[in-house]
Amino acid sequence: MDTAIKKVELSIPEVDMALLKELAKKFGWSVSKKKSRIEKGLEDIKAGRVHKAKNAEDMFKQILG
Length: 65
Known about the structure:
Elements: H1 17-27, H2 37-47, H3 56-64
């Protein structure tokens, strides 16, 4: 019997998450939600982890010094 762990990405409607979690619990699987890049970016903005530049030249000066 193959007992290797495989990670998969599954897109399902939010209303079915409870069913998926219940099924996963019965089989001993784990379910985790990965944040999208947009969600991560919005969190960065809320936390103040942003840099402001006047233009592209100013941005490169900030990055490269």
